[in-house]
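About this split. The held-out portion is used to measure sequence recovery: a designer receives only the structure tokens and must propose an amino acid at every position. Recovery is the fraction of positions where the proposal matches the reference. Here is one held-out target exactly as it appears in the evaluation file.
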């Protein structure tokens, strides 16, 4: 029986061209409906830009001044902002700075619209964190290309945020396994952020502390309930398993670059100033500062909440115990001293009584 003749294969170059066309088509389709905010006081120019983008399948809104733009960003959460440099109430440069300084909006791409020869505005825009620039009058093809490129990056950023959300949910799920630690992650996130601000740390470190407060014990997903909830002391083998959780937590979070600042806190939050902690036996200032901060607030929360092996201690008893532990070189004395001041000044904020 004769074998049916095969259709001739397409040339390699043609196959690549068609595959690229399919990829671009898929990308364009995946970005359809993306929300774009146009901030421009030129009514005709603004409407023209909105119409061009709408024809490409984007969801577009427009406003004529910076104040309206700022409110719409907060309320509507656009995927991209096209921002004219010259606005009636505030410069686009100033609004861009505000958006990039705000942790809630800093990841929204901003394209500044400038004059063809407006070099100073471009330099100022770079300084405040603008993601790209377009010249007036705008070339439609350049507009579409720059918008699509930044929306694609925004999509990748959103996917990373979704991955972070999964890890945070996992961490809270680990916490929920033990009724004695209910609310522990949220309290640590708040305590650590408050102490970080008291120590005048930059906002990115404060954010890392807040994230670490939630994620620090995520490695306990690898610790059996029988060990986590054991009311008595642990055996040598059980301690070996328990002491693995900082390493496992670091391994779980390591793939996300956005958590780079958090990883040392997760790994080293059980180290001691005297070098007798775990997992690496680091001592003194070899322990990363953010880890030293979390150690202190973690110790306070452990003392002031009920655990399988102890009742909750009142605030004053917990602070007295921690002072003794500082003398025994468990905690960074400077960090601990600032926490004691914070606890005295803002006991209500910390959510603990002063008795």
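Reference sequence for scoring:
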């Amino acid at each position: 029986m004769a074998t049916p003749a095969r259709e001739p294969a397409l040339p390699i170059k043609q196959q690549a061209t068609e595959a690229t066309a399919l990829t671009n088509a898929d990308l364009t389709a995946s970005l359809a409906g993306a929300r774009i905010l146009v901030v421009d006081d030129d009514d005709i120019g603004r409407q023209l830009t909105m119409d061009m983008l709408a024809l490409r399948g984007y969801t577009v809104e427009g406003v004529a001044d910076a104040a309206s733009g700022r409110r719409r960003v907060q309320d509507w959460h656009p995927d991209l902002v096209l921002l004219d440099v010259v606005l009636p109430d505030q410069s686009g440069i100033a609004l861009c700075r505000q958006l990039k300084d705000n942790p809630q909006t800093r990841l929204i791409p901003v394209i500044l619209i400038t004059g063809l020869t407006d070099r100073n505005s471009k330099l100022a825009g770079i300084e405040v964190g603008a993601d790209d620039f377009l010249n007036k009058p705008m070339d439609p093809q350049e507009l579409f290309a720059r918008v699509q490129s930044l929306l694609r990056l925004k999509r990748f950023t959103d996917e990373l945020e979704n991955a972070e959300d999964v890890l945070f949910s996992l961490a809270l799920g680990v916490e929920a396994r033990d009724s004695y630690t209910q609310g522990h992650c949220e309290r640590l996130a708040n305590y650590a952020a408050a102490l970080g601000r008291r120590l005048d740390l930059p906002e990115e470190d404060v954010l890392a502390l807040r994230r670490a407060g939630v994620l620090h014990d995520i490695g306990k997903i690898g610790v059996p309930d029988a060990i986590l909830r054991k009311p008595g002391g642990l055996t040598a083998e059980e301690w070996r398993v328990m002491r693995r959780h900082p390493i496992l937590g670091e391994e779980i979070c390591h793939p996300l670059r956005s958590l780079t600042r958090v990883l040392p806190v997760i790994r080293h939050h059980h180290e001691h100033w005297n070098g007798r902690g775990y997992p690496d036996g680091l001592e003194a200032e070899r322990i990363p500062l953010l880890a030293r901060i979390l150690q202190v607030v973690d110790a306070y929360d452990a003392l002031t909440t009920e655990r399988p092996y102890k009742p909750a201690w009142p605030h004053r008893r917990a602070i007295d115990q921690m002072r003794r532990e500082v003398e025994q070189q468990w905690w960074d004395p400077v960090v601990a001293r600032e926490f004691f001041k914070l606890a005295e000044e803002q006991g209500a904020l910390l959510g603990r009584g002063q008795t």
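Annotator remark: Confidence is low (pLDDT under 50) at residues 1-25.
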